[in-house]
Amino acid sequence: MKTTKSKAPMIVTIVVIAAIYAAVFIAEQILPPTSMLFTVLKKGATYALVAVSMNLLNGFTGIFSLGQAGFMLIGAYVYGIFTIPLEARPQVYQYFDGGLVQFTVPLVIAMIFSGLAAAFFAFLIGLPVLRLKSDYLAIATLGFAEIIRAIFQWNGLGPVTNGSNMLRSFPTFNDFNITDGQGNVTVYLSTLVPFIMSGVCILLIVLLIHSSYGRALKAIRDDEVAAEAMGINLAHHKRLAFCVSSFFAGVGGAMLAMYQTTVQAKSFTSAMTYEILLIVVIGGIGSVTGSVLSSFLFVACSEWWLRFLDEKQMIGDFEVPLLRNGFRLVVFSLIIMIVVLFFRRGIMGDRELWDLKFSGKERKRRAKE
Amino acid sequence: MNGEQKLQTPQEVKNVLRLENITMQFGGVVAINNLSLDVNQGEIVALIGPNGAGKTTAFNCVTGVYEPTNGKVYFNGRVIVANHPNGKMARQYGGINGEMYLKEKPVVHTPDKITGMGIARTFQNIRLFSSQTAFDNVLIATHLRRTSNMLTATFRLNAREEKRNREKTTELLEIVGLSDVANEKATSLPYGKQRRLEIARALATGPTLLLLDEPAAGMNPQETDELGEFIVDIKNRFNLTVFMIEHHMNLVMDISDRIYVLDFGKQIAEGTPEEIQKNPVVIAAYLGVEDE
C-alpha cells in the first residue's frame, strides 16, 4: 500500500540532485567562467523553471495556455524596475527623467514581487479566459502575451517601464560571485545561485503537485466531468493552477532578466513561448524531471552543440554543403518533427526521476504475469 | 395509487430528494416531461425505462450537470435546483405571461456544490481518472472535505488530515473489496471492479444520497447478484439513501423499495416492485411481453 512504499527512490533522487549541485559548484571553481557550459547551465536553469511552470498547467491540469512569455515579461520588468540601483536610474531612464519608481527592494523580495505581479495578471486574465477550452484558451492567452508586450513598449508607461528602451544595470547572476576588495572573484556562485533559485521553485511546484491540490488538478486533466462530480470546484482549481504557474513564470522571467543583464519587451515574443512548449513536449507532458532535463538539452543544443551548423565548415578542402546562417533552425525543426512523430511521450513520458528505479523491475514483473 | 398512500401514512418518513415538475428541453426535444418523484430516507428507489427515456438526464438535472428548463429539485427540504423559462417559453409552463414565476428566482449550483451538499453519483459510462491508481482515484474524492488550503497542503502542514484521508481511502477500498488492486491503474481493472471503484470514489465524498447510474451495466448474472447485496450492504453501513437507474430487472426487483418508470421523458408508473411487475402500462411500454 502507499504508506509502506519504499523510501529508497526518494533517497536516490536526493543524492542525485545533491551530486549535481556539488558538480556545478566545483565545475564553476575549476573551469574558466567564460566557458560555454555556464551559459548553458544558467539559461537552462531559468528555462527549467519556466518549463516546469508551464508543465504544471499544460501537463498536470490540462489547460493549454500559451501565455508564458507574457508572464515572464511581467516578471522580468517588475524585477528590473524594483532593483535598478538609484544612482543608475537617471542613466537608464534618460528619456523619462530618471523614472517614477525611486526606491529599490532587496533582490529576493523583487523576485517575489515579479511572481506576484505575474500571478495578479494571471488572475485578471483568468476570469474571462479560463472559461474557454483547449485551443480557444491557447489563442486567448497567446493574444494576451502579445498585448502585454505591446503595452510594455508604450511610451505612455515610460516612467515605469522605460518605454521601448531597455532596462539595465540591475543585479545579474554575475553579482552573486563573492569578490575580495579588489574585484577579484574568490568564490564563483553565478551558476550555483540560479540553480538554487530554480531548484527551490521547482521543489515547491513538485510539493504542490504531490499534495491533495495536485491530485485534484490531475483529476481535472483526466476527466473534468467526473472531477466536478467528485466535488472539485473547476473554476477555483483552474484559476489556482493558472496563478501558481504564472507566479513561477514571473520568477523565471526575473531570472531571465538576470541572465540577459538587460530587459526589453520586444525579446519576449511568442517564439519564446513556443520554445518552452517545445521543451515541455520533448521532456514529456506531465513529467517535471522531463521538463528539467529537456530544458538543459534544448538550451545546450541551441546555444552550443548545434551552433556549428550556422557557420561554414570545412573538412579538409571540402566545404560541407547547406551549412549557413539559419540552418541550425532547420535541423532543430527536423528534430522536433522526429520527436513528435516517433517519441510522442517525450523523454520521460509522465514518469519522474524517483519512478525510474522501479520501472525496470516493474516491467519484468508485468512480463512474468 | 398505492405508492401515494404509503407516503401519506402518519409514519415518520423523511423526504431526501424530491423532483417537482422537472422538464428538460434540448431545443425541440423534450428529454424529460414534467417529472415529479420522491426519494425518502433509507430507501432504495429505482428509476427504470427504455433506452432514451431520460433517466440519465434526470440524474444530470439533480447533480447540476444540466439546468432543467423548468421545475425544482429539493434535497432534505432545501431547494438545490430551480429554474423556469423566460420569454415565449414561459407561456408554455407558467401561464400566459409567466405569472407563475414572477417572484421566483432560479437556483443554480455547479455539480461540485451539489456533491458538497451530500449527493454523490456514479456514471453510466465509467468515468474514472484514467492516469491514476485505484487508490488515488478514491483519495481524490476526499479532497472535497478538506480543511487545508493550497499553502498548507504544499508545505505539508496538513499531514494529519492527509493521513486520515489515506486511512479512509484504505478502508473504503477494503469495503468494496479492491484492497489488492489499490496500486493498479484504475483503467486497467476489469469492468466490474471499475464499477465498484466508482462507487468507492462516490462514497469518499461523504454522501447521504447515492445516485447510481446503471451500476450493473455489462455485468453477468452472478456479478449482478453480488452487486445487489453490495448496494444493500453499503446502504446500511453508511446510512445512505440510494437512487439508481438500472436495466437488470432482477436486480431492480430484488433490492428496490419503490420503482419509477419513465418512457419518452414521462413518468408512466410508480410503485413497489410487485405493483410494477403487474402494471399493464409498464408491461406494454417496457417489458414488452404483452401481445399486441
- Give me the CATH architecture of the largest domain in chain B, please: 3-Layer(aba) Sandwich
Give the oligomer, counting copies of the same chain as homo and different chains as hetero. Answer: heterodimer
Based on CA atoms alone, the radius of gyration of chain B comes out at 20 Å
What is CATH's topology name of the largest domain in chain B? Rossmann fold
SSE sequence of chain B, one letter per element: HEEEHEEHHEHHHHEHEHEEHH
What's the name of the CATH homologous superfamily of the largest domain in chain B? Answer: P-loop containing nucleotide triphosphate hydrolases
Explain the overall architecture.
The complex is a heterodimer of chains A (369) and B (292). Chain A is an all-alpha fold and 369 residues long. Chain A has one domain. Helices cover 65% and strands 2% of the residues of chain A. Chain A has 15 helices and 4 strands. A two-stranded antiparallel ribbon of chain A has the order 1-2. In chain A, helix 2 packs across helix 12 (270-283), helix 3 (68-83) packs antiparallel against helix 5 and helix 12 (270-283) packs across helix 13 (288-305). Chain A is globular, with a radius of gyration of 22 Å. Chain B folds into 2 domains: 1-118 and 209-292, 3-Layer(aba) Sandwich (Rossmann fold), CATH 3.40.50; 127-206, no CATH class. In chain B, 38% of the residues lie in helices and 23% in strands. Chain B is built from 12 helices and 10 strands. In chain B, helix 5 packs across helix 7, helix 7 (159-175) packs across helix 8 (191-204) and helix 9 (221-237) runs parallel beside helix 10 (249-255). Chain B is α/β, with parallel strands linked by helices. The radius of gyration of chain B is 20 Å and the shape is globular. The A-B interface holds A 1-3, 204, 207-208, 211-213, 215-216, 218-219, 221-223, 225-235, 240, 244, 286, 350 and B 63, 65, 110-113, 115-116, 120-121, 123, 127-132, 135-136, 139-146, 148, 150, 153-156, 158, 162, 165-166, 170, 179, 182-183, 201-202, 204-205.
